[in-house]
Amino acid sequence: MVMKPMKALLDLEAGMRIVMDAARPIERTEQVTLLEAVGRVLAEEVCASMDVPPFARAAMDGYAVRAEDTFGAGNFSPRILELIEVIHAGESARLSVRPAACIQVATGAPMPDGADAVVMVEDTELDRTNVMVYKPVYPQQHASPMGEDIKSGSCVLQRGMRLDPSKIGVLAALGFQKVTVYQKPAVAVIPSGNEILMPGEALSPGRIYDINSYTLSALISENGGLPQIFPIMKDTLEAAISTIREALTYDLIVLSGGSSVGERDMMVEAVERMGEIKFHGIAVKPGKPTLCGVVEGHLLIGMPGYPTSCLTNGYGILAPALRKMSRLGERALASLKAPMVRRYTSTIGRHQYLPVRLDGGEVVPVFKESGAITSMADAEGYIEIPANVDLLEKGEVVEVLLF
Ligand SMILES: Nc1nc2c(c(=O)[nH]1)N[C@H]1C(S)=C(S)[C@@H](COP(=O)(O)OP(=O)(O)OC[C@H]3O[C@@H](n4cnc5c(N)ncnc54)[C@H](O)[C@@H]3O)O[C@H]1N2
Ligand code: MOO
């Protein structure tokens, strides 16, 4: 029976530096429709080739007037203007507004020639073709000039921006149907273990369902990647080598299971033969038996098989790497400070991610064991306990990072 003990554990900062150095932003771009663009990263500078709005328009329902014709109007001294035309949004006036005349306009209708302001309908009264104006307007009041929103020639969105609903609105305003974005990093998600079954398969003794492929894929999607779950890999060196070879068309290879020291943990040997091991074993808890390697220029991260170890490393190591590759940038989790509900002892020498929930304003550790997915599912967030701290006192205020 051959076991391959882990060498000295690497500290988290050094491990992160290695992973982040090997994670390269994707250069490939693609065109997507605006409906597909949310959350994507813009790969082009967007400059306006038109004004928005493309014409001066009424900003209120009412009457387009020459402002000076309303000066001096009051509740007891209305100015009386002649109504010469009525237009709706989408229509243009045939006539221009001459002195002492007005044109009825809907919000969004083009400002008629000659008019420089709109009197709101609430400040008027209509008597056949006479409009009594009870309140004066100043020039440009309730009228939006052409290009008020976006000026033709101005560059409104920059390369590298993440497209959120408002930025997609800018593209729509400029008449874009498609936009050029960076491709998402393609991520091979490779579960391993003879005991692992896909959902839908019948359970048999000693077998369990695959959790990690799904937690990892969800996390990868959330962080700008495109996950592809591979068939469950058998625990043999040949399977590991051929599967990793197949995965070399992906930008990032994430394996789960088989990264520890058991005799069937073939991953380390496979990566050693095919490329370079950057580290094996990192001083975090959970998540110690993590493997990082580079095979033919492709970053490979081997996650521990235990679901909570796998997922906490997903948050701690995989997500930052992916956000660099997908160009989404660092994700700042919301955080709050609260006191510990009880004393908690941690492992000295390992940076701990402790899943917690909040109860009555206090921080309650919910970690059961690395093998339990509910260690994470019952948590609202986590606290980090540095490697050189082994005790948190009851009542000690800690920072909770919220999922
Ligand atoms: N002698 C030692 N044994 C172990 C050590 C150690 O240092 N010395 N480390 C322990 C720690 S810590 C962890 S974490 C686990 C991780 O081991 P592996 O990464 O090699 O993972 P496996 O042995 O393949 O599996 C561990 C556990 O997780 C289950 N598993 C695996 N894949 C999945 C999946 N896709 N979905 C759900 N569950 C999965 C698997 O059945 C095992 O129960 O090693 C400790 N041992
Ligand atoms: O490092 Mo293991 O990941 O504690 O369970």
UniProtKB/TrEMBL annotation:
Keywords: Magnesium, Metal-binding, Molybdenum, Molybdenum cofactor biosynthesis, Transferase
Reactions listed under catalytic activity: adenylyl-molybdopterin + molybdate = Mo-molybdopterin + AMP + H(+)
Protein's pathway: Cofactor biosynthesis; molybdopterin biosynthesis
Coiled coil: none
MoaB/Mog domain boundaries: 188-324
Annotated GO biological process: Mo-molybdopterin cofactor biosynthetic process
Function: Catalyzes the insertion of molybdate into adenylated molybdopterin with the concomitant release of AMP.
NCBIfam families: Glp_gephyrin (NF045515), molyb_syn (TIGR00177)
Family to which the UniProt record says this protein belongs: Belongs to the MoeA family.
Annotated protein name in UniProt: Molybdopterin molybdenumtransferase
